Amino acid sequence: MKINYKIFSYGIVAIFIVFVAVLMASHFNVKKVRASIADNLSGWAWSETIGWIHFNDTSYGVNVAANGAITGYAWSENIGWINFAGANFNKATGKVTGTISAIAGAGRIDGWDGTIKLSGTASDSSSYGVSVSGCDWNGYAWGSDVVGWIHFKGAEYGVIGTGDACMSAPECSDNIDNVDPEDSLIDEFDPGCHSDGNPNNPGSYDPNDNDETNLLTCSIGQTNPHSTCVGNACVLMASCGATSCSSNADCTPPPVFDFSLSNNGPKSVIQGQSVQNLITADLLSPPTQPVNFSVSGLPPGATFSFSINSCNPNCSTTLTINTTLATPPGDYIIIVSGVSTALTRTTQFVLTVNQAPPCDDGIDNDCDGFCDQSGCTPPAGFCNAGIPLLPDPSCAQSVNNTEYSACNDLNSYPGGTPKDNDGDVDTNIDDKGCHSDGNQNNPASYDPNDNDESNTIFREVFVPFENLLAMLFMRF
Predict the structure, then answer these.
(1) What whole-number distance in Å separates Cα of residue 169 and Cα of residue 188?
(2) What are the helix and strand counts (H, E) for the chain?
(3) How far is 186 from 37, CA to CA, in rounded Å?
(4) Whole-angstrom distance between the N-terminal and C-terminal Cα of the chain?
(5) Reduced to 3 states, what is the DSSP secondary structure of residue 142?
(6) Are residues 36 and 156 in the same domain?
(7) One domain for residues 272 and 302
(8) 411 lies in some domain
(9) Number of structural domains in the chain
(10) Residue 377 domain flag
(11) Same domain, yes or no, for 112 and 42?
(12) pTM
């Protein structure tokens, strides 16, 4: 019989493809395992016996529902699928309980069908279990001698949750209005989350107290305002001097203290001078509390003071900032804080420090014994420090910070003699070079703002030329 080898070859290939498809379908259990955007566990667990267990991939994953029910599959290369159906996570306590199943899968010869306990008592009577802290899953599960201990967290690995796979915050610290929405107060400001019913007392706030409704305020005028609401009745504490209010409508939450802080906007100041800004505190809701002020962000060398250091809380206070000549020029963000018993508010503004001009900086810039247009006493570190100086006779604010006219400066103060800046024997005010017509005897031609005392050439040119001629004639 003649064999058609071509057809035979196609048949072999087709059989091989079907065999591989069946093997893969049984291995990956496609119908049971599907990825989902709801899968909120990821990472790896570890067993000394079977190695790594992977909790999330593109084709499978494990999900924790809002009610704590756990579903989905994890994968082990050595035992196959691990089905988490039947497990449960208590988001309040962080405990994980239940028994999960290992599924070898149809056609898998090296897998294992068995159960894994997520909590229980070991053979030595010690307890074990999987637990959650925040979003970190840790602890041990037990899967008989085949699997052994499964550790959910180690130094280099771990199982991590998101969303419903994380612990819930205690009701008094999750910043929502949990049990008594009629009071419209989040936990931190709810008197029901304070052991003494005072939301303004941080010492009585208990973030681990899951009863948010233990105290409210009754509005009928008793000396002690603390009360509890039971059903539709407001039952007063014994110290209130009464047994009940007429209805739950008489139970009202206490007002929560709040205030605002503001200022009058950007300010600028010259080195060595002072500037003021008006700071205003306004009560937004009672009861009142003292508000104390402080400042941060000051430039180097600057100090501050308030006209009123504390409000109760409505008031306006003047902030004064004093700079020094050593304060660097530039822009600074000034932050003013108002602090009450349990609340801090801030307001800020930009302070611009400008370079002091040479004729108004309180410094003897040219060390000639005079300074500024009104005189000054230079501070430490500057020429003539600590000495009261007279005004510079002709203070000139030039680009090189020269604060005097070269035609009108003195050697020292007090009693200094006129300077001779160009060394031509004539002092500046008597030098023809400081007179526009070269005539030092003509006061009208004297220019105190002319910093060049050699601009005419009478003494500076002709006198040296005469001396040279005299020397030549002496040689002959």
Answers:
(1) 13
(2) 3, 28
(3) 31
(4) 148
(5) strand
(6) yes
(7) yes
(8) no
(9) 3
(10) no
(11) yes
(12) 0.39
Secondary structure letter of residue 459 according to DSSP: I
Task: Give CA–CA dist 118/99, Å, rounded.
Answer: 6
Q: At 92, which amino acid appears?
A: A
Residues 65, 91, single domain; the answer is: yes
Same domain? For 152 and 235 the reply is no
Domain match, 242 and 275 both? no
For strands 344-354 and 267-270, give the pairing. Answer: parallel
Neighbouring CB atoms inside 10 A of 23's CB total 12
- Residues 310-345 have pLDDT tens digits of 999 899 999 999 999 889 999 999 999 999 988 999
Structure tokens at 245: 């209010």
Pair 38, 160 in one domain:
yes
CA distance 184 to 190: 9
Amino acid at 190: D
Q: Is residue 367 part of a domain?
A: no
If you count them, how many residues does the chain have? Answer: 476
DSSP 8-class letter at 400: T
Q: What is the enclosing helix (H) or strand (E) of 224? A: none
Q: What is the pLDDT of residues 347-393, one digit of tens each?
A: 999 999 999 888 888 888 877 777 888 889 998 888 889 999 888 76
- Supply φ then ψ for residue 298, to 5 degrees: -65, 145
Of 193, 228, 252, which one is at a domain's C-terminal end?
252
Residue 241 near residue 255, CB atoms below 8 Å: no
Over 30-83, what HEC string results?
CCCCCCCCCCCEEEEEEECCCEEEECEECCEEEEECCCCEEEEEEEECCCEEEE
Question: Under a CB-based contact definition with an 8 Å cutoff, are residues 338 and 293 in contact?
Answer: yes
At 181 the three-state DSSP class reads helix
Rounded to an integer, what distance in angstroms lies between the CA atom of residue 256 and that of residue 254? 6
Token pair of 379 as six digits: 């501070």
| Measured distance CA(342)–CA(189) in Å, rounded | 10
Which one has a higher pLDDT value, 308 or 394?
308
116 shares its domain with 140: yes
Cβ atoms within 10 Å of 171's Cβ, excluding its own: 22
* Helix, coil or strand: residue 165: helix
Nearest alpha carbon to residue 386 among 378, 375, 394: 378
Backbone angles phi, psi at 447, to 5 degrees: -115, 100
Backbone angles phi, psi at 94, to 5 degrees: 85, 5
pLDDT of residue 448 exceeding 90, the answer is no
Range 53-59 average pLDDT = 89
Domain boundary at 191, 221, 252, which? 252
**Pair of tokens at residue 206:** 């208990």
As a whole number of angstroms, the distance between CA 104 and CA 111 comes to 4
Q: Which H or E run includes 20? A: helix 5-28
Which two three-digit tokens encode residue 301? 């060398």
Residue 148 dihedral angles phi and psi, to the nearest 5° = 75, -155
CA 432 to chain centre: 67
Please enumerate in sequence order all residues whose Cβ is within 8 A of that of 4, keeping only pairs 6 or more positions apart, or say none.
Answer: none
Instruction: Note down the domain range covering 206.
Output: 181-252
